[in-house]
Amino acid sequence: MSATIIDGKKTSSDIKRELADEVAQLKKVGITPKLVVVLVGEDPASEIYVKNKEKACDLVGIDSVKHLLPASTSQKELLDLVNKLNNDDSVNGILVQLPLPKQIDENAIILAIDPEKDVDGFHPINVGALMIGTATFSSCTPSGCIELLKRYNIKIEGSKAVVVGRSNIVGKPVAMMLLHENATVELCHSRTRDLAAETRQADILIAGIGKPKFITADMVKPGAAVIDVGINRTEDGLCGDVDFEAVKEVASAITPVPRGVGPMTIAMLLRNTVTAAKMHAAKGRK
Ligand code: NDP
After folding, report:
1. Residue 193: CB within 6 Å of ligand 1?
2. Which class is domain 140-262?
């Protein structure tokens, strides 16, 4: 039997609708969430991401402001802008689109963002909070994975979850989130000895590798839920890290690429921005 296709596009639209209702209520009490996106240079993929973020903000009623800086921007200039945004009480969320040009140290920029405006959830304070289960902002792509599992009623508690990939933005945070949801979690990577033997034990398999169609049907336990975070541009167009056509015949549920995890990332960013606006208002800022 073919798997349930987990529709990230539809789920993200549902979440945006819910957020639009929430923002409409917030506006009635004088709170308009505001996100500032900073793009340095002219990376075409980043330009598309930033445009999509703007569009999504409009849809939900979040104010969005874009700062486009030239590729020659120095680290000091970017830090000055971040500091200005940190000190601007009208700004609830700051997102500096990565990657940054070579002359800028990404970690220095992430560290400079006020953790209470870090809607990407990349600041070490927010990463640490995720570790101990007190996170206000969790990074968006991993949160999107968890949200999809929950909205499709896939049981996480007690399940064996295997995550392939251990990056700071995908693998590690999603593993931690699954742990908080009471899964038994295993984190695999390029030095894992027998990867297929590990993935075949997974009730929930998350792939964040960056290699097209790397997870094949024989690596998946029959009935597993498979979440494919990968976005790979190939000659045949976009594809994930999972061999979708073959794996959907083995899994019980699976995300496609595109229309899977990707659209959820933006929905989670909007949610973090609304959370930030409510938090700032509660502290007396609007
Ligand atoms: P990274 O390159 O930072 O990490 C890749 C991970 O995969 C590493 O931990 C690496 O292991 C592991 N890996 C690589 N080769 C193998 C292998 N042969 N066997 C087992 N593990 C392997 O990538 P990201 O985490 O940034 O991104 C992963 C994918 O997710 C990419 O396709 C990216 O485009 C996509 N992505 C999608 C997003 C979305 O919004 N949907 C957002 C962010 C990323 P090791 O650590 O040992 O090197």
Report:
1. no
2. alpha beta
